[in-house]
Amino acid sequence: MTKHVPNPLPDLPRPTKAYHKTAYPYISPDRPELSVSGKTLFITGGAGGVGRNICRAFAQAGIERIVIIGRTLTSLNEVKSELESAHPSTEIAVHAIDVTDVAALQSVVRETGKIDIVVSAAAICHPGTPTSTVEPATLSDILQTNTVGPFQVISEILHHRAIQGWNHELKVIYISTALSHIHVNHLSGYAASKAAMNLLLVHLNMQWNDRGVSLFAIHPGLIYTSMTGKVFPADSPIWEDGNLSASFCVWLCHPEAAFLSGKMLWAQWDVQELLAQKEWIEKYPWHLEPGLCLPTTERPSQDFFTVDNRLKN
């Protein structure tokens, strides 16, 4: 009999009482309020397990055009055929290129024109192994795909938007992982690559948010894919509904989610509870951002002081 590992994530501290494992009505792509009609989605890793669900959700929400980047043309054509069959009014374009191929990405971004939504879902992972035994070459490949690649994609789209003089709202969603802030020793290289991009996203938000750009990092959940299936068996009860994170991405593109720009979010957190905390989150802008967790959310007051023994009298 297979020994199953329980899902530990619902037991961790979180900002909402509810922990969703499946999609729910408020974030349904069928809600008219969440319509993305007339918009263009640019997604990397769109033929993978997580990315494919996201493409389906945006097509369901009425998106006009989806540009899908992936490494395998066969998989890309499969998702293209599926989406065109289910949503004939949505234009689908696929490009078989690697996210680390800067020149190819620049060409596709310029060819695509105006982009409204960016989802960075391409990722690779190393086999489970103690941290000190991760091969340096493997770690380098992971950082290139999970950190440098997404940074290049997002930066290229931001700069192309600025050069063209466009001032439309742009939503950027990076598919991160809870492992970026939870210590799991045997997947440390993967976790580090995601944590690095989370922090870069915070700095990109500081630079671009006042210019109509919202950027989010999200933990999509424990979703069974070809990558995660190498860690846990397919029949494990640990898996969560991939439609949840896909619907969450659609909701993030609604104006009411803009106050969460620059944050690290879990798709399992209840969005109506997050909305109820909007005032508090805006008051403490470092809340839900990667960084040092201290026992107080208040900034140092006049009662605090600095000691530096290097100073000369």
Oligomeric grouping of the chains: single chain
Overall morphology: globular
Q: Total number of helical segments?
A: 8
Number of strands: 7
Name of the CATH architecture: 3-Layer(aba) Sandwich
CATH-defined fold name: Rossmann fold
The helicity comes to 25-40%
Distance between the termini: 72 Å
Largest sheet: 7 strands, parallel
Query: What is the CATH domain class?
Result: Alpha Beta
Structural class category: alpha/beta
Protein name: NAD(P)-binding protein
GO molecular function: oxidoreductase activity
Pfam families: adh_short
Keywords: Oxidoreductase
Give a description of the structure.
The chain has 313 residues and is of the alpha/beta class. It has one domain: 3-Layer(aba) Sandwich (Rossmann fold). Helices cover 35% and strands 12% of the residues. It is built from eight helices and seven strands, in the order βαβαβαβαβαβαβαα. Strands 3-2-1-4-5-6-7 form a seven-stranded parallel sheet, with helices on both faces. Strand 2, helix 2 (73-86) and strand 3 form a beta-alpha-beta unit. Helix 1 packs across helix 6, helix 3 (102-112) runs parallel beside helix 4 and helix 4 runs parallel beside helix 5. It starts with 39 loop residues before the first strand and ends in a 30-residue tail after the last helix.
In short:
The chain is an alpha/beta fold.
SSE order and pairing:
Elements: E1 40-44, H1 49-60, E2 65-70, H2 73-86, E3 91-96, H3 102-112, E4 117-120, H4 136-163, E5 170-175, H5 188-208, E6 213-219, H6 242-252, E7 264-266, H7 271-276, H8 278-283
Parallel strand pairs: 1-2, 1-4, 2-3, 4-5, 5-6, 6-7
Helix pairs in contact: 1-6, 3-4, 4-5
